[in-house]
Amino acid sequence: MKTLYLDIFSGISGDMFMGAMLDLGVKMEDLTRELEKLGLPGYHLHASREQRHQIEGARFQVHIGHDHGHQHHHEHHHEHDHPHEQGHSEEHAPGRNYSEIRRMIEASHLSNFVKTKSIAVFQRIANAEGKIHGLPPDKVHFHEVGAVDSIVDIVGACVALEILGKPRVLASAVVEGHGFVDCAHGRFPVPAPATLEILAARGAPLAQCDEPNELVTPTGAALLAEFVEKFGPMENFVPERVGFGVGGRDNKSRPNVLRAVLGQSAPAAAHDWETDTIAVLETNLDDVNPELLGHFVDLAMAAGALDVSHAPVQMKKNRPGILLSVLCAPADADKFCEMILRETTAFGVRRSTAERRKLRREFSVVKTAYGDVTIKIGRLDGEVIQSAPEFESCKKLASEKGVPLKAVYDAARKAAP
Question: What are the DSSP calls for 67-86, one per residue?
């Protein structure tokens, strides 16, 4: 299976990824032709060969400006690749919010793969920035990720992967530097807030090295979060071509390059399902008041548990009891352990981690005689395996129309794909 392996021993940014793609054989004219479909004015692309610590690779730059006489060079140093950091003038690089960027990509003649993936990468950055600033993702203003150079980086990365034949993407653990970055929020330790948020949302493994610089940018982190199927060392991998994408700066302890290896690998899984890891918390209760149990379920769900269940069990000394189970994110496990101990009669909680396999989920709206209903669709390897009306959507419509909930639900099920 065609596979791209990203060796992130010196970090990753949008321009380094693009440089690595060029070094692997993506042609500049093919990239330019596709990017023109965005209808984005005021830039041109520049590629050159440069060395970092005697390693030669491709350097990709976006030059902002309409002509060679009056242009603004966006140098794409790592530390200047932030949505919240750069100081371009509005005249050269107007900020855009996430919904504007999404509309621009959707309105273009780019392929469905490039459209879907570009929007997904931007969504990851918008979610992270939104969480940091307390804004809904659609309202996040990308001061500079919204600017021309970073739109080109993100859409260009998706175009490059399509040109390479949409390979499966694997990567090493992510290596970041240390120290501080100056951004709009003041001085922040590396990793920068958005970078860390994006990697955390994806559950990507992260290690810091002794390089006193920021090595991973939000754009680089979002590309990894969206495309990498699995992080870890190379396994059952036959390398065929090696490319180096060069960053703008000379690092002290390592060459500032991203190594990308194109080759063949045995797929880890035969299916395209999503995987994640969750914490499973359980306790056996033989003396809990049912009202307390009901209260606990409400409390845990409101606090962000993924699921809470309880079932009758037979316990020691032939006592009837309750098995209480809470599923949650691993980072929240201690919080929910404490909640179980404080809010129920438990003296102890069993904690384990479990891997999940999940259908790829999407939502669509179907028309019924009563009105529009949201449907949740689950796909496996492209095939629709499950489809179910969203309960809240049915309930709202039933209430508005004064009809039985069951009637709305049945109509929505019949209309579902």
Answer: SSSS-EEE---GGG--TTT-
